[in-house]
Amino acid sequence: PQTAEHLAAVETMNLQHIVVVQNKCDLVSKDQAAMSFNQIKQFTNGTSAQESTVVPISAEMEVNVDAVVEQLCQQIPMPVRDYASDPRMVVIRSFDINRPGDTLKLSGKGASGLKGGVAGGSITRGVLRVNDVVEIRPGLVTRDSNNHIRVRPLRTRVESLGSESTQLKFAVPGGLIGVGTLLDPFLCRQDKLVGNVLGKPDSMPKVFIELTIHFTMLRRLLGIAGNDSVKETQYEQYMQDNFGDSSRLTKVSKFKKHDVLQINVGACTGLATVVGVKDDLAKLKLERPVCADIGESIALSRKFNGSFRLIGWAKIVKGKALMLD
Prior knowledge:
Layout: H1 2-12, E1 20-22, H2 30-44, E2 54-56, H3 65-75, E3 88-95, E4 105-107, E5 110-112, E6 118-125, E7 128-129, E8 133-143, E9 149-157, E10 160-163, E11 166-168, E12 170-171, E13 177-180, H4 185-188, E14 197-199, E15 207-217, H5 229-243, E16 260-265, E17 268-278, E18 281-291, E19 297-304, E20 307-321
Parallel strand pairs: 1-2
Antiparallel strand pairs: 3-6, 3-14, 4-5, 6-13, 7-12, 8-9, 8-14, 10-11, 10-13, 15-18, 15-20, 16-17, 16-19, 17-18, 19-20
């Protein structure tokens, strides 16, 4: 089902450059691997992935991984990087690098003994440098005595930049970067900053508590989105042949008022309630505020049988911004 969701998302977003990987070939016989290969080709037939190369590998044994790298280099165009804009980074990890028992030591030369928290993620644009002053949004989110949401962005300085074990003086888009800061380590431990956005203070997006979105729904929960009915027929046959039940292709109904969705905005995952729907526009009230740009793409999921499943995607049209402390 997860693979079906991914392919449905690929179809909906009209992606053209695709590499298909058949993993765990070391766990089956040669005949079983060949049968799975043919099933994958049947599965992608009639979709934008039908001409894509299928690469059998064993990631655990590191067999044929070089072929995947070769396909990525040949089939996926080099993305255009934006080095001129102010830096922006999506935080996907944060942690405290101090050891238990470390304490802050004060002396005439300053403080030592404790290191600030670390935010890890991918730079999406611009160049981030050591000693840059940066802001992290939304930052600290609390509620006051009237149950109103209060948002306090975190401002700090970049103390260090690292990629794995390599220390950097500056970092550019592409790959994962660890950003050492002067933040209280408590604020960063156990991924507390995941979903935040880091960037220059004067160039940060607004923090929204309500979003108006222009959405595109998948036609079926496990189906292939699009207007070609042949694709659905082929996929129904695939489900019948491999799972014995094409009825598992649950149709995705449109939003209704009071529906609860799970949305993914960058690295931020949270719940949202539908408060209004008109044609292909929906207004969402968020459980937790998000920092996002107008026009940014988000993923939409709905709960089926106790778990959230991908049902579509959307672009942010406008939103209700919060005042920042």
